[in-house]
Amino acid sequence: MSTLFLHFFHRPSFFQAVLPSSSSILRQQHHQLFYLYPTWLKSLDIHNHFNSISSISSIQKKTTSQKMFISSIAFSHLFIGMGCGVQAFANPLHHPRQHNLFGSQMMTNSRLWENPLDATGGGEAIVDLGSSRTSTNSRKTSSLLKDLTLDGSTTTNGSVGTVTTTTLEPPLSPPPLSHSPPSLESKSGTIILANDDEFIKSLPDKRSYRAITLPNQLTGLLVSDPTTDVEAASVHVRAGHFDDPPNRAGLAHFHEHMLFLGTEKYPKENEYEDYLGRNGGMSNAYTDMEDTNYYFNVSPLNHDAKGDDANSGGEGGGDDKAGNSSVENNSSGISSALSGALDRFAQFFISPLFDQSMLERELRAVNSEYLNGRTADNWRNFQLLKHGSSHEHPFSKFGCGNYNTLTDGGDAELPVEEGNLDFGGGTSPRDDLVTFWTEKYHAGNLRLCVVGRGSLDDLQRAVESTFGAVRPPPPNFVANGIIDKIKAGYLKLPMEGETHMRDDNGNFVFQTEHSTYSPAVAFGPNELGLLREVIPLVESRTLKIFSAVPPMDDPMLRGSRPFRVLSHLVGHESPGSLHHLLMEEGWINSLSSGTGISTTDFCLTNIAITLTPKGMKERDKVLAKTWQWFSLIKDSVMNDPHGVIEQYHDELKTMTELSFKFREMGDPTDFCSAAAGRMFDYEPSKVLLGSAEVGKYDVETARAFLERLTPQNSLVVISGPERELEESAEIEVSAHDAPWQVEERYGARYRQTRISEELAEAWNHPAEIDPRLRLPGLNEFIPEDLSLRCDDKDRISEFDPDVDYRKEHPKLLFDTPNHRMWHKMDRTFRVPRTSIKLQLTSPNIYHSPRTITLNRIFQKVLSDDLNSYVYDASVAGCNYSVDCVPSAYRISVSGYSEKIPHLLDVVTSRIASLIEEMKEGDDAHPGLAKLFHKAEENLLRQTKNYVYDSPYETGSYNLRMLCEAPVWHIDDYIGEMEGPDAEADPLTMKECAEVAEQCLFGRLNAVSLCIGNIDEKGSHEVEQVISNHFLKKRPLVDGEIPRFRSLRMPNMAEATKIFGSALELSEVPIVYEAVAHSEDEENNSVELMIQTASSYELGYEGLAIQELIGSIAYNSAFNQLRTKEQLGYIVSAFVKKFTGGGNAFCVLVQSSSTLPPQLEERCLKWMKQFREELEEMPDERFVMEAAAVKANLLEKDIKLSEEISSVWGEILSTVPHSEHFKNPVFDRIEKFADVLTLNAANANSGADLKRRVLQFYDGYFISTERRAVSSRVYNRKAKDVFDQHFGKAGVISSYADARKLKQHLASYPTAPYW
Predict the structure, then answer these.
(1) Which residues, 6+ apart, have CB-to-CB distance to 1267 below 8 Å?
(2) Where is 841: in which H helix or E strand?
(3) 189 — alpha (psi -120 to 50), left (phi > 0) or beta?
(4) DSSP letter at 1063?
(5) Under a CB-based contact definition with an 8 Å cutoff, are residues 1273 and 1076 in contact?
(6) CB proximity list for 966: less than 8 A, separation 6 or greater
(7) 1273: part of which helix (H) or strand (E)?
(8) Which of 318, 414, 927, 1149 is most buried, taking the most CB atoms under 10 A from its CB?
């Protein structure tokens, strides 16, 4: 898959953490990598029960602003269309002060990219993303939320000299900026750089825009959206860990943490997060190589001033306007929530405290963050890449930092006495924090973006009154951005009539290359032309080729963007491509190309290949074929008499323009974060357009760019198991003569050698090119018919712009015993895209470990096989997925409407023909046999890698194994693929096809949804395709529909009856203990779970109260257990939903310093403390919290994909239930909101809500009848403690123990609560 053309202008993260949400309403704050489920599960969905695995909460509804993965009440909603893909688990649990520690974007082979500035339904893969990260952790993201998203911002690493590039002497006579927009000055002195009519927008974009520069020279983008349910703001600072001083590695990252801990105006350390929480919002931040980004969102609430005063922290806390918690604008046109949030946010950049008393705690938080990363291959690989760069260049720095580097030599292991500030023998970083803030955090080095309901004039006044006090820049300051550098004359545009710039020798000039940190060059001759071998922690095999090229936003590259075409070709997957050839040989699992690292003065392109064990043995051939492919592309570019390359360019240009033309309005929070960063590099009127503006093909620029892709200018990195790297006697491409080394920060083991001149020559000029390699044909899936069905002459009714068509529910179009189809024609978003969703429910998939394993293998084979059929469709914005979950197969087809019928027919037809071919056996289809054995091999590897998951992931998995039924354990899956039983009765391709056939074409029930730009006639045609392919046998009877159960854990009395009098008296009767597998694992974890009741028993009322408690609890637990007690970096309190209707409240801590029994003790103590906090909390605070949760629940879908996710989730939630509950409750969220709607005329409404909350808490969490279980995981050093507990009554130490206990347990009712 090609991603090189995806230029991330805000250069966020090299590694995109793909994680699940961990809280019902996450109060988050900064990027805590919180995996709730094992990584093998994230990629396999092995235990994705009926519609999901243990969901995290009870009520599900998406919050567009938070982009979180939240939990789900109808837990089917969690895995809508996600199947076995890693996307199904995307969300880091952010918490205060955790961030994005990787400096550049990750390579990926995903075809669906979420661009905050490009919320399209298809074609994202050819437009500038603006950000590789979505803001995920919102504190107020209810479990009612229904959306699934990716997250992954992290921060980077550094440890060399300070680089100062902020104040530049401008030329005496800067050349005029030909494209500078005219400016207007307001009465306040604010300059208007661009008004709304000057912005280039997409058709669906109804927001109003204005770009301004305040008198203090702070540039901002204002966005007015009167319909938004989320108001947001972001500040992007052009300073990151490249700017760390030499003796304080990680200072930029640490500085970002400290800004959240109080300002002069609001000195209370949690004031900012508490305020946002009371207003349905969240905050987050990330630190990158050259950038730091801060952002927040709120619901447009107007709380009573009295209520806000009662809970404000610090001076000025009660400055909000009155509004009785209504979601309306106040008299000034700006909600009090946004007004107060902007005021608090602005203080970060006006008067932060950097309180000396908080330094030690936060230093330990950063150190814990660092320790968490030491056992992650992504962190290791990124730091190793940095370690291998020139140490004269700031890219080599250690950006995360740890206690030792931030204190200039301090030891975190030394005990700290109360009030002692000796920093472990090091020195205080406070002076350096102040210096860093003073030098970098001024108006000239910031860009601001605000989205709100108010008018542009109202927003401008709000920004002037809050950010107007930010310090102006020093004289002659020039920001490190394209716009400022052009204005100052440091970058020149080609003269009129010229297309290129050349030096005196006629060589192509890329002005930005090696300019920012000159004379330092990150990757020069000494750092390139190398072969590096790396031993990963988790079993994996990868081959990567990094090539040094100019920055992607260099003025010479911006017009024609040759890297898009080149990456498109390198990563192509159609027959004749490198990908297809290597897959056909059984050498690879995936191939992607794109931007590996992007900075302002260099870029590394990257082709990333995941190898099979066979491919690892044949890596010489894989590399040879790869360089042959490069050579073929180069020759085509250098000698292109028929203009084929230009045709590819024009295709991509057309798709980019289409994608931008129909770009829907995106999430306000993500939009703000991305747009603020873009303002450094784009003139205001083109901030929305970004790199979607593509000029004509420029063959000379393409040739100059391609000249960089040589072995001498590349770094080849091979990663794999040590035994396979050592078995290299016959491998030409090996560093076996070099000694093994260890990178000092994260401990990566590697060795490297220089690529010989002979080998480099053979790669660069291959003697022959494999005849199977050929350039792809032109794309036949580019749509031409972009008309809207809702505008057809025979439409149902005239479109009324004043009607909110989101309130119209899908219509039940077909209702037969084996198929129920819903249809809704889009009249809200008005884009030419259609989505078809289909679930085929079968009791045979999860019948046994063998059947689910065979079905998962079939899914992998199908995915590889279909790729050659539909790759062009995916590039053109039409996507498909076929996913296997324990109860069903899910088929999804979406994209531009014109091509969807053809794509559906291709996918469904190939499923049938593939099964028939596989049934004929290995000898008849050796190519398919290769795919089958590769799929089995990959599934086994991924499953076995589970043991390397973080302790808290393992602990959460063990809880689910205990609380749900039926479940197959990971060992059951492994036993089907390896070991004595597997050898005696191996899996075969023929058996795989027969099992898949039974599950896809046997007796089953189907539900489907046709939604978007499709009318009833089109839906009838879809129904015919479904019926003709899948529904040829009689339907399932009600008792055959697969159903999963949640088990009721025992209370103390019941546990005593089970285990006898030997059960130790404890607050937690059942303890599940395990030991981490990895010797390198330094962390312990505990997840304390207290069950409440089934969703049916709780009902709307109980689930809403439970949700409210989870919302309030997160900040309290984080503040106490993480901030004050410093137990560990990963801390959360959340509501959790189990398959089969069970609910629980969980407290989770992962710690490198404290053992699980002590962590459990602290969690129990916090729960008592939290009860006191609830008791002391004013009634008005409960009103605010309820209003915030309600506002989150009622957020409107802002693009078609969100509405699809919402309604499809409601449809799926009905599948496991009997005929009495077959109708989806499309207004389910509104019913939850009604529970939280308080009567403003009733003076006791807040008091009554408080009473209900306390009653719920006491009944389930404090009562002697409570049902508590603790899941503990020890690191290897603490195994002796585990051994001491082994065999004790009430202690479960294996899944065999768990199975024994489950025989004593009853199930919760499975009936739905609606």
Answers:
(1) 1048, 1049, 1050, 1051, 1090, 1091
(2) strand 833-841
(3) left
(4) S
(5) yes
(6) 846, 1044, 1045
(7) strand 1267-1274
(8) 1149
Q: Are 297 and 342 in contact (CB under 8 A)?
A: no
Sequence letter at residue 108:
T
Among 381, 373, 540, residue whose Cα is nearest residue 950: 373
Structure confidence at residue 422 (pLDDT):
80
Q: Would you give the distance in Å from CA 241 to the centre of its chain? A: 22
Contact between residue 1139 and residue 1044 where contact means Cβ atoms under 8 Å apart: yes
Please tell me the pTM assigned to this model.
0.85
Dist CA 997 CA 991 (whole Å): 10
| Confidence bin at 691 (pLDDT 50/70/90) | confident
- Reported as a single tens digit per residue, the pLDDT across 710-744 is 999 999 999 999 999 988 667 888 999 999 999 99
Could you tell me which residues come within 8 angstroms of residue 407 by beta carbon, excluding any fewer than 6 positions away? 363, 423, 424, 426, 427, 428, 429
Q: How far apart are CA 423 and CA 409, in angstroms?
A: 9
pLDDT in tens, 394-424: 999 999 999 999 999 999 888 766 656 788 8
* Residue in this structure with the two tokens 């001498």, named with its chain if needed: 712
Separation of alpha carbons 1022 and 1016, rounded Å = 10
φ/ψ of 224, rounded to 5, equals -100, 125
Q: Name residues whose C-beta falls within 8 Å of residue 777's C-beta, 6 or more positions apart in sequence.
A: 574
Listed in sequence order, the residues at least 6 apart from 637 whose beta carbon sits closer than 8 Å to its beta carbon are 566, 645, 699, 702, 703, 706
Residue 305 scores a pLDDT above 70: no
Count the residues in the chain.
1314
Specify the 3-state DSSP secondary structure of 648.
helix
> What is the DSSP code string of 333-354?
SS-HHHHHHHHHHHGGGT-B--
Task: Read off the pLDDT of residues 1189-1238 as tens digits, 9 standing for 90 and up.
Answer: 999 899 999 999 999 999 999 999 988 887 778 888 999 999 888 888 88
- At 950-1007, the pLDDT tens digits run 999 999 999 999 999 999 999 999 999 999 999 999 999 999 999 999 999 999 999 9
Number of other residues whose CB lies within 10 A of the CB of residue 625: 21
Phi and psi (nearest 5°) for 839?
A: -120, 130
- pLDDT band at 1242; cut points 50, 70, 90: low
Bridge-based pairing state of the strands 741-742 and 749-754? antiparallel
Paired tokens of 285: 């931040």
Contact by Cβ (8 Å): 162, 246: yes
Q: Where are the beta strands (DSSP E) in 105-188?
A: 184-185
Name residue 1218's amino acid: S
Strand partners, 1012: 825, 834
Residue 1016 CA to residue 1024 CA, distance in Å, equals: 12
Contact, 750 vs 535, CB < 8 A?
A: yes
CA 411/CA 442 separation, integer angstroms: 33
Rg (CA), the chain: 29
**Cα 1108 vs. chain centroid, distance in angstroms?**
25
SS3 assignment, position 1166: helix
CA–CA gap between residue 1122 and residue 805 (Å, rounded): 45
Q: Where are the alpha helices (H) located in 1002-1094, listed in sequence order?
A: 1016-1030, 1052-1059
Euclidean distance between the first and the last CA atom of the chain, given in angstroms as a whole number:
44
- List the Cα angle 715/105/6 in 5-degree steps: 95
- What does DSSP assign to residue 249? T
Distance CA 1138, CA 1093 (A): 11
Distances (CA, A) of 470 to 284, 347, 653, 1217: 21, 8, 41, 58
Read off φ and ψ for residue 1084, nearest 5 degrees: -110, 165
Q: Which two tokens stand for residue 1197?
A: 């879908």
Question: 1070: closest CA among 1230, 892, 1233, 1291?
Answer: 1291
Q: In the numeric block, which tokens belong to residue 37?
A: 């489920």
A 10 A CB-CB count for 1306 gives: 9
